[in-house]
Amino acid sequence: LCSGRAAPIPKGALLPRVALLKGFKPLEHALLAQHLAPLASLCSWRRYAIGDDVELNATESAVVAKGAVAVPAAVLERGGSLQPWHAVGGVAGWAAIAPTQAVAMRPCSVLVLDADALRQRIDASSPKFVFAVLRALVGALPAPRQAGGGTIKRMQSVLSDDDDSDEDAASSVFDSRGAPSPLEKVLLLRDTKMLRFVPARFLPLLADVAEVEVLQPRRKIATRGSATDASLRILADGAVVLDSGGGNRVLLDGPAASFGNTGLLADSEWPYDARAGNDGAVLLVLRRTRLHDALRGRRDLAAAVARGFLQTYGRRALAAFGKAPDRSNG
Question: Quick check: 127 and 302 in contact, CB under 8 A?
Answer without folding.
Answer: yes
